[in-house]
Task: inverse folding
């Protein structure tokens, strides 16, 4: 069956148009975005691995090498089986550091622009045979289907079409860091088309050509050599070497790296892909033996590489050949589209940008557009070079042979992967040396002979038997020498500190923690510095993007946050311009002061934030360590002592809740800043204590907000091996309340001893005063005196009586706190109040007050008279202290049933509302220490309680105070005591 | 006994599974299923067995992570 070229061209364009429609529909949301992130779609998108080699070339490979053709997929299966220790760590590194290609990965790990350049060159050279393989497959297909002889023209048209579609698929977004969801879905669709097509052709081979599985088995029984031809080559062939090559190719080929890592939307999808993608490959290759035997049984006059198409042309129908053509087109176009995108990224980041950055932008354009057009130009250039390579290949080793040359090229990166994941000691010199050695052997044994066979160059290599070797031998030798050189040079050469840090971060999947502190002090400075290289708008954009990525609020940034922001800008720019250039930009324009020993501050903040934000659950020991870290953190937070920890540079690492209470400085305002940025007096106190030789300061009196705070300070130095990991912990104990209590107790004891002294003095004074009174009485009664003398004697008696009363009251007062063992008695309330007024009036302040005793006379209460005197003395003293001279203090009484209500009212300054609930508490006083003990009202309260009564207070500031005492009337009191 | 007890880490179980697969795929064990008398679909069955092993491994690792 023959077709017209225009028919197939139309089919091709329509099919590619369908792919573009699928991609557009996904990007615009017509197809749900969740489809793009589905694990099966991800697994199918990795099916870009199966190119024309798989679609057509596997049959030819099976014919020559038997089941060795399966090694191309078994090695891949092993790579995906090992994904937890191989692919997943690489995915995490590329995601964390925004690495857009294989070359960027190695440039980042080995801290070397040269490494990126060499990998790009090797991969570019190694991919050219692969691209030409696709072009050749499509042109051969068209030739078979149309008998068209203008192969080169067909190839050119194919290249232009696919190149344009590559640009349309992969360079639609201004921001090159966006994932191409549409591309992922389109490539997954192409994989499905390949699978359905090959399975259909296989079914046709079994049922259409042979007539069923039974007939197929009959054929094999009749032709045992057919089955044996599949197994025999395996025993003598390069089974293990081919598996090793396909193991490497599974994730190192540029299209594989791009789809597995760069376009990964959900990193958990790789778990499903670990088995789903190998299953896809198994189903894809299930049809190969039946197709081979069908072609052999039909004795087709075409290379076995194209039996897939050839047997369908025998079907008599146009559907199956067209479907097969579309399957082959899927295989070729998917490969070229994804490969050119991946290579364009590599070439931009490692060739074009380092050579031409910063670009000379025309007015109205920005760096994003410049990058976009740059990529488009590189894509078309790569397709063009692939076309030229195809043109010069007149004698090539077949589809599989060309593909294996590419496999060996990318396999040279395997030692570098070992260094990336498992051997931090590997350094750039070892990697570059090994790569050069391996690539050189590859070039002279496999790549250059391609040109020799084509007659383009004449070198003796192809003809020298020792050098002209099979692909697998070339693979083994190149890898062997590559690995040896890599190991030996790495061990013999020095690794820089920066490289070491990156190596550790990569191999342990830990975080690359920024060292030092940024010189800039604000976000505005960041933007200004970046703007000098990438323009104001882009700089603002990049800073905003980094702030959003870290969930930082612009108004709440401290110095450590700025260091983290710098790291995030570095990562974001890496996704745009590659890690090497982004590091150049950031190192040059967002400079860091490496002398600042802020490693500890950065580590604590970075790890803390990263742990909080990490999407992957911690497991095993990491989970336990995190729980322990949180526990210790909480312990520090909940301590009843203020704790601040500082690093060597004085940056505050932690600031607990108690310290926030003591200082009034919030945690968020303190952590991450220097102690020199705190407000006084804390700045001077903490900075001075930190740098002093003292480890303890006790009873430091600090005036704060018109109050004296009494603090104890303790200091502990935390020494580590590395000086930049050392720190200081300062504990602050607020002893103000305790100090006050101690002072009050001392004062109270002083007063108590004064009371005792008063008691003793009263007793001593009492005797001579009694003597004086007696003598005066005798004189008055015995002699006949003049009126004047009698009056004088009366005065003596009055004054001695007064002295006796004063002394008696003082004695009673000093005994007031002691339990009274004497029985309760009845007494007149009016007289008790009167006695209290007399006592209070003795003081200077009391003399200036007006006390009005409005208690009813004859109002009897039962209790302990002197204790009640003390109660009223306390209340009247407090009223006097609160009042101004000349003001009135009133004592009233009222009888209500069996209770007596006594009110003491003053016109003084009153009591604040917040103090009302506390005034009866022991030691509570609003007076300064020395003026009052805070015990008077407490004693009053207890005495009233003892009498079966109650006391309450009503007051408003500046509106006087009123104490209400309720006591049981004498009869009620007796009843209560009974 | 769970394959993923607290003593065995995910890395270790993955390495064990890969080594088992290599043993099956490489000589001398591969000579048991790669010989001229074997049915043509046998390599596919072996391959399918390794894929099942991979699926089981992922299931175990997911359970362990939870």
Result:
């Amino acid at each position: 069956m023959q077709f017209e070229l225009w028919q197939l061209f139309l089919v091709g364009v329509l099919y590619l148009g369908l792919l573009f429609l699928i991609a557009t529909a996904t990007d615009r949301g017509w197809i749900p975005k969740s489809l793009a992130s589905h694990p099966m779609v991800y697994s199918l998108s990795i099916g870009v691995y199966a190119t024309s080699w798989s679609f057509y070339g596997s049959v030819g490979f099976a014919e020559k090498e038997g089941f060795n053709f399966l090694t191309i997929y078994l090695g891949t299966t092993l790579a995906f089986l090992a994904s937890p220790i191989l692919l997943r760590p690489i995915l995490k590194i590329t995601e964390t550091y925004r690495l857009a290609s294989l070359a960027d990965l190695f440039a980042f790990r080995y801290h070397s622009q040269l490494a990126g350049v060499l990998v790009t060159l090797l991969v570019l050279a190694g991919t050219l045979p692969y691209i030409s393989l696709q072009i050749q497959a499509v042109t051969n297909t068209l030739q078979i289907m149309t008998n068209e002889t203008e192969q080169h023209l067909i190839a050119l048209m194919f290249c232009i079409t696919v190149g344009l579609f590559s640009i349309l698929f992969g360079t639609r977004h201004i921001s090159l860091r966006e994932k191409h969801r549409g591309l992922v879905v389109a490539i997954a669709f192409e994989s499905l088309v390949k699978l359905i097509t090959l399975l259909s052709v296989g079914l046709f081979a079994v049922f259409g050509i042979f007539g069923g599985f039974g007939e197929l088995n009959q054929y094999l029984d009749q032709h045992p050599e057919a089955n044996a031809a599949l197994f025999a080559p395996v025993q003598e062939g390069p089974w293990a070497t081919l598996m090793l090559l396909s193991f490497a190719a599974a994730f190192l080929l540029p299209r594989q790296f791009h789809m597995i890592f760069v376009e990964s939307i959900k990193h958990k999808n790789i778990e499903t892909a670990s088995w789903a993608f190998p299953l896809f490959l198994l189903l894809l290759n299930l049809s190969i033996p039946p197709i081979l035997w069908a072609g052999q049984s039909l004795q087709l006059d075409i290379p076995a590489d194209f039996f897939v198409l050839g047997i369908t042309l025998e079907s008599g129908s146009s559907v199956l050949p067209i479907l097969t053509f579309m399957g082959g087109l899927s295989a070729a176009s998917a490969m070229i589209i994804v490969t050119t995108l991946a290579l364009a990224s590599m070439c931009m980041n490692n060739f074009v940008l380092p050579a031409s950055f910063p670009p000379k932008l025309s007015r109205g354009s920005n760096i994003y557009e410049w990058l976009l057009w740059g990529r488009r130009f590189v894509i078309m250039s790569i397709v063009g070079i692939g076309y030229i390579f195809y043109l010069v290949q007149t004698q090539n080793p077949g589809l599989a042979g060309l593909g294996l040359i590419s496999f060996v090229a990318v396999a040279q990166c395997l030692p570098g992967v070992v260094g990336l994941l498992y051997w931090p000691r590997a350094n750039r010199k070892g990697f570059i040396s090994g790569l050069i050695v391996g690539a050189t052997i590859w070039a002279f044994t496999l790549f250059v002979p391609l040109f020799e066979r084509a007659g383009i160059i004449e070198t003796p290599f192809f003809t020298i038997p020792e050098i002209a070797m099979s692909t697998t031998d070339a693979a083994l030798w190149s890898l062997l020498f590559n690995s040896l050189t890599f190991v030996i040079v790495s061990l013999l050469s020095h690794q820089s500190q920066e490289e070491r840090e990156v190596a550790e971060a990569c191999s342990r999947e830990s975080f690359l923690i920024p060292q030092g502190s940024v010189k800039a002090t604000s976000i505005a400075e960041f933007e200004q510095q970046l703007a000098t290289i990438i323009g104001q708008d882009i700089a603002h954009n990049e800073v905003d993007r980094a702030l959003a990525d870290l969930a930082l609020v612009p108004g709440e940034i401290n110095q450590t946050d700025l260091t983290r922001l710098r790291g995030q800008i570095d990562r974001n720019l890496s996704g745009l311009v590659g890690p090497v250039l982004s590091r150049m930009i950031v190192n040059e324009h967002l400079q860091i002061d490496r002398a600042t020993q802020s490693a500890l501050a950065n580590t604590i903040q970075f790890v803390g934030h990263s742990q909080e934000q990490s999407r992957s659950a911690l497991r095993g020991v990491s989970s336990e360590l995190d729980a322990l870290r949180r526990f210790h953190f909480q312990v520090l937070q909940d301590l009843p002592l203020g704790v601040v920890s500082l690093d060597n540079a004085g940056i505050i690492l932690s600031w607990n809740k108690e310290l926030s209470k003591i200082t009034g400085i919030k945690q968020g305002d303190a952590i991450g800043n220097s102690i020199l940025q705190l407000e006084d007096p804390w700045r001077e106190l903490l900075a001075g204590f930190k740098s002093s030789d003292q480890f303890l300061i006790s009873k430091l009196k600090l005036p704060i907000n018109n109050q004296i705070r009494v603090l104890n300070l303790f200091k502990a130095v935390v020494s580590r091996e590395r000086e930049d990991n050392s720190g200081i912990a300062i504990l602050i104990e607020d002893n103000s309340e305790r100090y006050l209590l101690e002072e009050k107790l001392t004062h109270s004891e002083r007063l108590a001893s004064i009371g005792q002294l008063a008691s003793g003095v009263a007793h001593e004074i009492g005797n001579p005063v009694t003597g004086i009174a007696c003598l005066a009485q005798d004189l008055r009664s015995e002699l006949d005196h003049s009126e004047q003398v009698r009056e004088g004697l009366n005065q003596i008696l009055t004054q001695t009586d007064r002295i006796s009363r004063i002394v008696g009251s003082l004695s009673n007062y000093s005994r007031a706190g002691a339990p009274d063992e004497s029985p309760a008695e009845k007494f007149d309330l009016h007289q008790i109040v009167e006695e209290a007024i007399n006592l209070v009036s003795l003081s200077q302040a009391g003399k200036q007050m007006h006390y009005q005793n409005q208690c009813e006379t004859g109002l009897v209460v039962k209790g302990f008279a002197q204790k009640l005197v003390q109660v009223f003395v306390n209340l009247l003293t407090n009223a006097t202290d609160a009042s101004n001279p000349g003001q009135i203090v009133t004592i009233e009484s009222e009888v209500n049933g069996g209770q007596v209500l006594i009110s003491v009212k003053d016109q003084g300054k009153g009591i604040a509302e917040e103090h009302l609930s506390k005034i009866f508490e022991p030691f509570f006083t609003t007076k300064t220490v020395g003026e009052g003990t805070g015990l008077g009202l407490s004693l009053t309260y207890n005495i009233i309680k003892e009498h079966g009564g109650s006391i309450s207070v009503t007051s408003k500031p500046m509106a006087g105070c009123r104490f209400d005492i309720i006591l049981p009337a004498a009869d009620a009191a007796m009843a209560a005591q009974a | 006994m769970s394959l993923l007890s607290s003593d065995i880490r995910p890395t270790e179980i993955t390495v064990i599974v890969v080594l088992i697969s290599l043993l099956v795929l490489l000589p001398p064990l591969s000579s048991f299923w790669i010989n001229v008398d074997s049915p043509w679909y046998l390599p596919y069955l072996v391959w399918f067995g390794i894929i099942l092993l991979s699926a089981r491994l992922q299931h175990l690792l997911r359970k362990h992570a939870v």
Q: What stands out?
A: The helical segments of chain B are 10-25, 42-65. Chain B has a mean pLDDT of 83. Residues 10-65 of chain B form one domain. The longest helix of chain B spans residues 42-65.
